[in-house]
Amino acid sequence: MKIKFLILTGVLLLLIAVAAACQPAPAPTAAPVETTPCPTAAPCPECPSCPTPEPPVVENVPYEELWANSGHNASDAEAFNHWNTEDPAAVPTMCAKCHTSEGYEEFTSTGTIANAIPAPAGTIQCVACHNETAAALDSVTFPSGIEITDTGPATRCMVCHQGLASKNTVDAALEKFGVTGDPDKVPEPVDGAQLGFMSNHYYPAGATLYGTEAKGGYEYDGKSYDGKFRHVEGIQDCLGCHNSHSLEVKLDTCKKCHEGVSTVEDLRNVRMQGSFVDYDGDGNVQEGIDGELKGLQEILYSGIQEYARDVVGTGIAYDQNAYPYFFTDADGDGTPDTNADGKRTAYSTWTARLVKAAYNYQSSVKDPGSFAHNAKYTIQLMHDSIVDLNDKLGTIDIASLHREDPGHFAGSTEPFRHWDAEGGIVPGECVKCHQDEGVPQFLANDANIAMPASNGFMCTTCHNEQAFPALYDVTEVTFPSGAKVTFGGTDADGKPIADPSNLCLLCHQGRSSTSIVNKSLVDKEPNTPDPGIRPQNIHYFAAGATLFGDEVQGAYQFEGQDYLGFNSSHPLNKCKDCHDVHALEVKIQSCTGCHSGSSDPQDPRTYRLDRTDYDGDGDTNEGISAEIDAFAERLYAAMQAYAVKIGTPILYDSHRYPYFFVDADGDGVADTGEKGPVSYNAWTPTLVKAAYNYQLYQKDPGAFTHNPKYVLQFLYDSIVALGGDVSGFTRPATPAE
After folding, report:
1. Peptide bond into 51 cis (omega under 30)
2. What is the C-alpha separation between 7 and 310, in angstroms, rounded?
3. Of 150, 171, 509, 701, which is most buried by a Cβ count within 10 Å?
4. What are the sequence ranges of the domains in the chain?
5. What percent of the chain has pLDDT over 90?
6. pTM of this prediction?
7. Which residues are paired to 317 by β-bridges?
């Protein structure tokens, strides 16, 4: 009972406590509060205006429509879709440079492309070329490894339009397969791979344009080739001829000079001055230069087919629209063979000779504008491939084909290519006659400075560009002797008159004279060899020196002797009277008025104006050239006899500088040393004078008509000076004035 009482008491107390807690608490007395007004906020600053984006955003993109319709935006073209079905679908790094905008930008910025670009990658967008890096490009490195500098805005084009191969590419492959020494051997596989066709890829216009300077074609050893094709000022690169956005040819620009041109296709009919020969041997020299290229392509392809069939033993067929382009044609029906799956069989039995020819053929086909980019370089490549094939076949009419133009336009020849191995810079003393801007520069400044080598002459070499087609007016010409002459005579006041043939004299005058030879021999003993003596060289084609004779003293004229001056005995005595000023050929039709039966340019060698038997052989009907040759033959014999007498036999080689060599054993072959043939080194003043005149005879192949009696005089006197035999010879007389 006691326990229950205690529990009950506890519960009651707890209830009382809870009831007390639920009563409201008394309200507290509030303390006084001080109030502070809210501060006034500063006004918000005005937002700055948005900056103008760089480059500025424009509503209409300039030239967008031209670009949109161009090949660079041909979204359905193979060039931009080739890799879409690959696994993985990506444009490889070696292709992305030219087949994607992203790749082009990366390459022009870094020089390489790190990773393949997912396909489809789209077309070439504006930003590819329109960015600071691309705009600053000014040099391009071709597949040959050669870098061409100062290429300007057109560099952006040539980053891609340069091809993918070169002579180096082909030679490296041939060396790898061990066929450099056997051009007709089909090599064994190397590392499981066979020797195959090498393609220069599509549209290698830049490589064509720069010719041998870029070496995009397969250039045969021992041959020289044209350099960059120089058209006219302002129209010498991609952007000079093509709209940079539409890529179309600037036809209106072409029409300014090329008559009869109304469409782009008409340009294929153009044939410029300087392209005079029948390159493809079809007898047509009036067709456009593209016709010549097409003719050579047909000959080359026919030679490739004949060689593959008859030498290799496996026929070949070409399809420019299907990779790898060359296919097996076992039955010779001109159609590629197919395998059991209906696929064409790629040609696989390649030899070195066939690879080279096919490479050049493909290069000519894959640059459809080669007729304008550099026709002569392409002609030379195909010509040399045809000749190389024919070295094995012997069935092609090589004699009817032509590789070079007349001298002034033969850009691949030594007079214009001599300096290629020396950096391609022509020294100032050579520029006037060996560089296309040399004559204008000389006429403007009476001097020349070093200039880059050119590709032969241009129209503006002789025709005043400011008054085209007028020729430069040249009133008189100063020769190495200091003498001034003119073809034009003088006016009433005695002033020289300009004449077109004076232009020829600027170069065809030689580079030495009697006075220069004498100056080099001061204080030298006449017949004592002296290592300090250096022979003087008249240089090439000194026709003017021969023609004007004593007036300019281009030959060495011996003291005490009289010599004939300008050859006025012939009614045709100006350069343009006898030579076509462009083709340089003899105007044989001009000779027929006096020399009946003339039809061949070699006929003048049979002409003579008098019947004096100068060489004493009893033949007065032979041409005057034969009389001169007899004198020259006697002079050379006298030089050799004299050289033996002073202890060092001499040998002459007209094709090898410096022309005179030591022949100690007298076997008719130049002695050789560590650096090749030994140059003659025992000169005496007497021998120098005679050798100088002999060289003038050799280097003016038209001397027999330019001034034959003058030539006979200086040859005769040279023989006498050497103590040679002139018995039976007659020296032409110089009429008293």
Report:
1. no
2. 133
3. 509
4. 62-136, 169-313+349-412
5. 82
6. 0.83
7. 327
